[in-house]
Structures are given as C-alpha cells and as structure tokens.
C-alpha cells in the first residue's frame, strides 16, 4: 500500500516538473509527464494520445520567444492508483518577434494515474480565467536560461 503523503508529494512534483519543462522548453521532460493515452483539454479543444499532445505542445511552444508558467496553490484528492487535482496558475508569454506579450490567469483540472509506480497526467484541462488580450508590455530583455 502506498503512503498518502508520498503520493501527494509525488503529484506535486509532477505538477512542478510540468511547469519547469514549460519554462525551460524541455520537450522530453514535458512529454514524460503524460500517460500514453493522456488527454490535454485546452478550453474545450481536446487533444488525445501522448504523441498528439506532445506534437501540439511543440507546435505551440515554437510560437513563443518567452514563456513563464507560475503555478500557485493546488488541491488533490488521491484514491489508490488514481487522483484528481486543481491548480491555479499565471502565464506570461511573448510571441516570437514581438515586444508585446500576453498575461493569463488560469486553472488546471487534472486527472492522474500511477503507472509503474510513477504518477502521470491522464487528463489535464486548462481554462483561462483572465487574459489581458495582448496588452502587456514585455519589451524587456529576455535572458537565456542557465544550464
């Protein structure tokens, strides 16, 4: 039997690894957070299957010079080898070739599965609560990420 505290810490680490992969544009790390049959729901637009999900992410990330995803508080409900969670987040994004950016506040509603002892996203539903409609000034310098 698994320890509920260890499970919670592992899921919180999964959520943090996902955001870290977004911020560092680490495609292999980001892909490693999903089950093979995972579903990414972007405001009602569902992408199903890890290959399609990763392809969509790679395509989307290619359009941005800078992305910072900041995850705030979250809640979890763990039931054996499955769990659900909700997270609040903010995103700062600057498209390629632009000096203006976007700012979003959103939520993730998640479903997790433990696969071979590791927690993964089986479904991640993203909804925007606030979007500044590209009015954000992000004309400052983008610094390279440390190795």
Task: Note down, in words, how this protein is organized.
This protein has 147 residues and is α+β, with helices and mostly antiparallel strands. The protein has a single domain, classed as Nuclear Transport Factor 2, Chain: A (Roll), CATH 3.10.450. The chain is built from three helices and seven strands. It has helices spanning 4-24, 27-31, 50-61; strands at 34-42, 45-48, 64-79, 82-95, 100-115, 118-131, 136-137. Strands 1, 2, 3, 4, 5, 6 and 7 form a seven-stranded mixed sheet that branches. The protein is globular, with a radius of gyration of 16 Å. The termini are far apart. The mean pLDDT is 92.
Give keywords.
147 residues; alpha+beta; seven-stranded mixed β-sheet; 3 helices; Nuclear Transport Factor 2, Chain: A; globular; single chain
Secondary structure layout plus pairing:
Elements: H1 4-24, H2 27-31, E1 34-42, E2 45-48, H3 50-61, E3 64-79, E4 82-95, E5 100-115, E6 118-131, E7 136-137
Parallel strand pairs: 1-6
Antiparallel strand pairs: 1-2, 3-4, 4-5, 5-6, 5-7
**Which runs of at least 5 residues are low in confidence (pLDDT < 50)?**
none
Q: What is the annotated CATH architecture?
A: Roll
CATH topology: Nuclear Transport Factor 2, Chain: A
Mean pLDDT: 92
CATH class: Alpha Beta
The helix fraction, in percent, is: 25-40%
Radius of gyration: 16 Å
Largest sheet: 7 strands, mixed
Total domain modules: 1
Please report the total strand number as a whole number: 7
Q: What order do the SSEs take from the amino end to the carboxyl end, as H and E?
A: HHEEHEEEEE
* Terminal residue distance: 38 Å
Shape: globular
Backbone structural class: alpha+beta
Alpha plus pi helix count: 3
Strand content: over 45%
């Amino acid at each position: 039997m698994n320890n509920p505290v260890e499970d919670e810490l592992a899921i919180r680490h999964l959520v943090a690894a996902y955001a870290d992969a977004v911020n560092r544009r680490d495609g292999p790390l980001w892909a490693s957070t999903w089950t093979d049959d995972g579903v990414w729901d972007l405001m009602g637009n569902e992408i199903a299957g890890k290959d399609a999900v990763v392809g969509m992410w790679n395509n989307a990330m290619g359009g941005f010079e800078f992305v910072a995803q900041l995850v705030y508080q979250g809640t979890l409900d763990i039931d054996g080898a499955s769990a659900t969670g909700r997270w609040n987040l903010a995103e700062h994004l600057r498209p390629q070739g632009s000096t203006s950016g976007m700012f979003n506040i959103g939520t993730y509603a998640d479903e997790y599965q433990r696969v071979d002892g590791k927690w993964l996203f089986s479904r991640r539903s993203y909804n925007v609560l606030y979007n500044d409609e590209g009015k954000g000034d992000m004309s400052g310098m983008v610094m390279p990420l440390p190795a």
